[in-house]
Specification:
elongated; 137 residues; 3% strand; single chain; mainly alpha
Length: 137
């Protein structure tokens, strides 16, 4: 059994986050010791490790909830897990594409800025007037 502090250290998840996951029903409420301290099982540690890894990959709590449900039913086909992960991947790819557009536009603005004063600064002028941008971002 693990105290909340031990669980926090071992899983790399802050104590308030562990409590939040409990409130959200992602982790079962732990048993209490005679001194009313939370005591977590190995299963709770494994579940928290799963949640932490999923969060590190950027999955939403709702997606994690669904994946946890699937993980509790190993006989189910993994189609739903693929759909969840695939949807998340598509979102990541959209964000990457947007970041690349932002990178390109900002690089262009910086490269075209040859002013020596703020009054001549293309960065300032472009930020003040979106029409000076060449791409939609």
């Amino acid at each position: 059994m693990y105290s909340i502090g031990e669980l926090s250290r071992q899983c790399g998840v802050k104590v308030p986050t562990i409590r939040y996951y409990e409130q959200q029903g992602l982790i079962e409420e732990p048993v209490r010791s005679a001194g009313n301290q939370r005591r977590y099982s190995q299963a709770a540690r494994d579940r928290l490790t799963f949640i932490r890894h999923a969060r590190d990959l950027g999955l939403s709590l709702e997606a994690i909830r669904e994946l946890l449900h699937l993980s509790e039913n190993p006989q189910m086909p993994c189609t739903e897990a693929h759909l969840i992960a695939g949807s998340h991947l598509a979102g990541i790819r959209e964000k990457i594409a947007r970041l690349r557009r932002l990178e390109g536009e900002l690089s262009r603005v910086l490269a075209s800025c040859h002013g020596e004063t703020v009054g001549e600064c293309n960065v300032i002028h472009t930020l003040a007037d979106h029409a000076l941008c060449e791409t939609e971002h």
